[in-house]
Specification:
The protein contains one helix and eleven strands, in the order βββαββββββββ. It is mostly beta strands. A hairpin with a 4-residue loop joins strand 8 (about 80-85) and strand 9.
Length: about 140
């Protein structure tokens, strides 16, 4: 069952409500995510664009990081508020954007771009590992 969670960027100019599909996190080790977030990014599947309510859209700047993926971030404070698969318009939201997640229920279920994971960090909890992002 989908649960609605609320979040915002650091400065509060962008707010969102998303119907998160589960509390199973994805973890991305790709170079693009690590550059954008200064480390691996923990994400929750938030569904399709119609499933997310954004307030402050005028403060979202969009960057196309690849042919398949674009990232939305706050033009004021720089917080990454989403990654979106262009086709099929599917959103992933960084876990730490949300203000009301039951953090003790979060688990790592999948890890992406594992061949790009640097040697200097490791996680005790591991998810299903993928060398790229599944199609």
């Amino acid at each position: 069952m989908k649960q609605h969670y609320h979040g915002s960027c650091q400065c509060g100019k962008i707010k969102l409500t998303a119907a998160v599909q589960s509390l199973e996190m994805g973890l991305c080790h790709c170079r693009s995510c690590r550059k954008m977030n200064a480390g691996p990014v923990f994400i929750l599947d938030a569904g399709f664009g119609k499933d997310i309510l954004f307030e402050g859209l005028e403060h979202i700047t969009v960057y196309s990081s690849s042919e398949r993926m674009e990232r939305g971030f706050c033009s004021h404070c720089g917080t990454t508020v989403y990654s979106r698969l262009v086709q099929p318009d599917f959103y992933e939201i960084p876990v730490d954007i949300f203000d009301n997640l039951p953090e003790n229920e979060l688990t790592i279920s999948k890890e992406f771009f594992c061949s790009s994971q640097p040697e200097y960090y490791h996680f005790v909890e591991k998810g299903q590992r993928f060398e790229t992002f599944p199609q």
